[in-house]
């Protein structure tokens, strides 16, 4: 059997590190590239290149003609505190778009056709996500376009970019729209962490009787997907004959207030919640899995609590090591 070769762009990141492990378990030879190394040592690629995909010369080095597949997860991103303040909009749009433009053009030059692009549920229109109890996030609801952030606009642009390379250059681009991926080895402090990790950190560091601060009124709803199922969805999409875009997310919707209560229950601590002002994004968002079930015969199914328990315990371990708690 001939060993397949893959490039994972963003291999130093959370999802990228887990994807490298999955590909290695399937017998792939893997080259990883990222602007940073994985902070938790999750770098099991056969070759890891430390570099910036905004640099054309670096892209020429890592996108080689012998590659069977490329997984483009590299992006300038973070949680609500990074994406929704407006302070980072120019960097988010410029940096992420440039990575995609460089990778696609070098793929065209080298004759590499198979690529996965990680889009985001942030590209869905804000007007369909105003009701926290009934958000509309089916794939066909993307237009008329009206994302609530520049991060979402860039994702929407890049989706169209990949699909044009399919039409004009015979590419086999696959697009997955991620819905709030979380789990062990994800960013959990520093300002770019997402809500699940931030709440797990706050609860893990709290003492009985403490107050946990939650941004907004807590009624905003989301669904959260454990990273193992995200990676499973990526691989199933790549092995299919369906291009997407398709949601890769859980349908188990929960309010941020109730998510916080879930983490508090897992911790066994007696804590209370205080709602404070802060960036919250849309009022409601939940994955619609009708299309992925139809096209792939599969959809995420791991209960939220299972993933939260796994993530909370991992973050608790990190705090014990780094914060001397």
As for the CATH topology of the largest domain, it is Rossmann fold
Counting helices, strands and paired strands, the structural category is alpha/beta
Helix and strand run: EHEEHEHHEHEEHEEEHEEHEHH
Helix content: 25-40%
Distance between the termini: 50 Å
Low-confidence stretches: none
Number of strands: 13
Task: Please tell me the total number of domains.
Answer: 2
The strand line-up of the biggest sheet is: 3-2-1-4-5-6-11
Distinct helical segment count: 10
What multimeric state do the chains show?
A: single chain
- The amount of beta strand, in percent, is 15-25%
Identify the CATH homologous superfamily of the largest domain: NAD(P)-binding Rossmann-like Domain
Domain NAD-dependent epimerase/dehydratase: 6-249
Keywords: NAD
Protein name: Nucleoside-diphosphate-sugar epimerase
InterPro entries: Epimerase_deHydtase (IPR001509), NAD(P)-bd_dom_sf (IPR036291)
Describe the structure.
- The chain has 325 residues and is an alpha/beta fold.
- It has two domains: 5-181 and 225-248, NAD(P)-binding Rossmann-like Domain (Rossmann fold, 3-Layer(aba) Sandwich); 184-222 and 252-285 and 303-322, UDP-galactose 4-epimerase, domain 1 (Alpha-Beta Complex).
- The chain has ten helices and 13 strands.
- The protein has helices at residues 14-25, 56-62, 80-83, 89-110, 150-169, 195-205, 227-239, 256-267, 290-296, 304-322; strands at 5-9, 29-34, 47-50, 69-72, 114-120, 172-178, 181-182, 211-215, 221-222, 225-226, 246-248, 254-255, 272-276.
- The strands form four sheets. Strands 3-2-1-4-5-6-11 form a seven-stranded parallel beta sheet, with helices on both faces. It has a two-stranded parallel sheet with strand order 7-10.
- Strand 5 (114-120), helix 5 (150-169) and strand 6 (172-178) form a beta-alpha-beta unit.
- Helix 1 (14-25) crosses helix 7 (227-239) and helix 4 (89-110) packs parallel to helix 5 (150-169).
- The radius of gyration is 19 Å and the shape is globular.
- The N and C termini lie far apart (50 Å).
